[in-house]
Amino acid sequence: MKNSGKVWLVGAGPGDITLLTLKALQCIQQADVIIYDRLVNPKILDGCSVNCTCINVGKSPGYHCVPQEEINALLIQHARTHRNIVRLKGGDPYVFGRGAEEVECLVEEGIAFEVVPGISSAIGGLACAGIPVTHRDLASGFHVVTGHTREGNQQQDWRQLAKLNGTLVIVMGIANLPFICEELLMGGKSPDTPAAIVMSATRENQRRLTCTLGTLLTKAQEANIVPPALIVVGDVVRLSDRLSFIPEVMERVYSESCS
Ligand code: SAH
């Protein structure tokens, strides 16, 4: 049986399992195989059927558990032997999730696929920490960039990014924070610009640190910030105390949908 299956590239949202879309939930329930990443809340897997095989290909920063080529090979192999293969990724699969690389490989192999978008941590994760990425008076746009670029690829031009208006959201930036802060300041960003780090957004251990760009590095070091975390630079951070909230835990909704 060649290429009998379909691969669903599914966004699992930022962490809170009730931030899954209905379509994502349905994919998980119908999956024969789920291949999931480190940032996916493992509780989501409670929704799959007893016959479903779940494969963890989680990557830690700086250490790739399963190389990308092997993940691609796994997708192809399972698509040839199973009907519904779910490739589950944190947040949205096309926001720094290598989703496009995996779909390109499926296209090359003639394997059917569908993309199920998810709530990206870069927007939804910040919202749950009281930070709106835009605001009519404070930010007319936002830029989501990676703080970690692949070796050999074009590096981020932080000094140019410093000149842009709007909110700057940096994912995968914690390890590179000293350089990022220094370069943004060198690029002319005022040290008084409000800045924040949101750690484990939408999860039980969510933490938010707010300060200014000038104090961000020291504060982050004092607070012992560890990934996953988002760095935000921009005036919208000023709203975060006023707009933050304690979310209601609604996990029962998920377990009921799963049963
Ligand atoms: N596709 C994902 C992003 C993958 S890149 C999305 O749309 O959200 C991985 C980076 O995303 C992490 O290093 C971190 O910067 C950010 N991230 C993902 N989930 C997060 C969370 N719950 N809290 C804070 N940052 C998160």
Automatic annotation (TrEMBL):
Pathway: Cofactor biosynthesis; adenosylcobalamin biosynthesis; precorrin-2 from uroporphyrinogen III: step 1/1; Porphyrin-containing compound metabolism; siroheme biosynthesis; precorrin-2 from uroporphyrinogen III: step 1/1. The keyword Transferase applies. Keywords: Cobalamin biosynthesis, Lyase, Methyltransferase, Multifunctional enzyme, Oxidoreductase, Phosphoprotein, Porphyrin biosynthesis, S-adenosyl-L-methionine, Transferase. SUPFAM superfamilies: Tetrapyrrole methylase. It is an enzyme of class 2 (transferase). GO terms for molecular function: lyase activity; oxidoreductase activity; uroporphyrin-III C-methyltransferase activity. Its EC number is 2.1.1.107. Residues 6-216 form the Tetrapyrrole methylase domain. Belongs to the precorrin methyltransferase family. PANTHER family: S-ADENOSYL-L-METHIONINE-DEPENDENT UROPORPHYRINOGEN III METHYLTRANSFERASE, CHLOROPLASTIC, SIROHEME SYNTHASE-RELATED. This is uroporphyrinogen-III C-methyltransferase. The lineage of its organism: Bacteria, Pseudomonadati, Pseudomonadota, Gammaproteobacteria, Enterobacterales. The gene is cobA.
